[in-house]
Write a structure and sequence with these properties.
It contains 12 helices and 9 strands. It is of the alpha/beta class. It folds into 2 domains: 173 residues, Glucose-6-phosphate isomerase like protein, domain 1 (Rossmann fold, 3-Layer(aba) Sandwich), CATH 3.40.50; 127 residues, Rossmann fold. Helix 2 packs parallel to helix 7. The longest helix has 22 residues. The chain is globular. The relative contact order is 0.17.
């Protein structure tokens, strides 16, 4: 009989997020690819790992100048694959065990890609299929919803960039110093956001740039732990067709990573949703720190601040967020 209180695994793992982030981002890896010979980078992942990949895609594009886009695993797991000569494939899988991701890593390598894996499980099948593995080294994650491995995946991607670009390495180290000071720090408006989620019928989670990937992760966590309908949107895309849902009761969470170039877009989205009468909550790293963060680190920080709110909401609704009824830790897909 399981006597562990509901949510205790997830709570402990959320508490480990910043330590995992700082450790994974600080690893000094040899350069896993030759940027001069790489024409494009493709991310391959699912679920929370795909949200981390989305965050990293913006950071990789900005820093390397290379196009970075998502490649569905089914291109290799169900099809014959695509030519990836002079490309890199970044495969993110916390367990390293999902068959479609193993096939994708194997297929991408067979079609010419330099395959870099980010995984938390040493000796996994994804690691065996890759050219190089960047370990998350988060230790066991027992809750079904991933938290510390998501934040660790972002950090491992930052370590990848640090290995490729010395200038980025300095900024990543500074971001780790800032993050380390925030152990145990809570989102100041946590109570208001939790109250909003408890009365929510529909939730939009809005971000831009690396905040867009963070929005995907937050929306996924709300769905899988709280059983509340939530969708993630870019602050630009949401002002098209999805804005019409504001004609019904709508809760809007805006994840603002603080970058200057995204402020106008987030401001416009916030103004439109407030004008439509939505319950809008905007969260920023500046709510807890004035330290310098890379955009990817800022997205990771937003997750560490919002995860506890989602956990508390799930418990208040009577759910066990450690073990959602319809989910399992390793999802086998094709």
């Amino acid at each position: 009989m399981n006597t562990t209180p509901p949510g205790s695994h997830m709570a402990r793992e959320i508490g480990e997020c910043i330590d995992v982030f700082c450790a994974a981002a600080s690893v000094d890896h040899p350069a896993p690819m030759d940027l001069a010979r790489t024409r494009a980078i493709y991310t391959i992942a699912r679920g929370s790992s795909d949200a981390a990949a989305n965050i990293l895609s913006y950071e990789l594009m900005r820093e390397t100048g290379l196009p970075v886009t998502s490649l569905p695993p089914s291109v290799f797991s169900l099809g014959e694959g695509v030519t990836l000569t002079d490309a890199a494939a970044l495969v993110i899988s916390q367990s390293g065990a999902s068959d479609d991701l193993v096939r994708a890593a194997t297929g991408a390598r067979g079609r010419g890609a330099q395959v870099v894996a980010i995984t938390n499980q040493p000796g996994s099948s994804v690691e065996a299929a890759a050219n190089v593995t960047l370990p998350i080294s988060a230790g066991p994650e027992l809750a079904v919803p991933a938290t510390k491995t998501v934040v660790g995946s972002i950090a491992a991607g930052m370590a990848l960039l640090a290995a490729l670009l010395p200038g980025y390495k300095t900024r990543a180290a500074s971001a780790c110093t800032v993050m380390a000071r925030l152990r145990g720090v809570a989102l100041p408006q946590a109570g208001k956001v939790q109250s909003a989620l408890l009365r929510a019928q529909h939730v939009y989670v809005i971000g831009r740039d690396t905040g867009y990937g963070a929005a995907h992760e937050v929306a996924l966590k709300i769905k899988e732990t709280c059983a509340i309908h939530a969708e993630a949107y870019s602050s630009s895309e949401v002002l098209h067709g999805p804005l019409q849902l504001a004609t019904k009761p709508l809760t809007v969470l805006i994840l603002d990573t603080g970058s200057a170039h995204i402020q106008d877009s987030l401001d416009a989205a916030e103004a439109r949703f407030r004008a439509a009468g939505c319950d809008v909550h905007r969260m920023r790293p500046s709510d807890v720190t004035d330290g310098a963060l890379t955009p990817a680190a800022a997205a990771a920080l937003m997750l560490t601040l919002v995860y506890p709110v989602i956990l508390a909401t799930a418990l208040a609704l009577g759910h066990d967020p450690d073990a959602p009824a319809t989910l399992s830790k390793v999802t086998q897909t094709t």
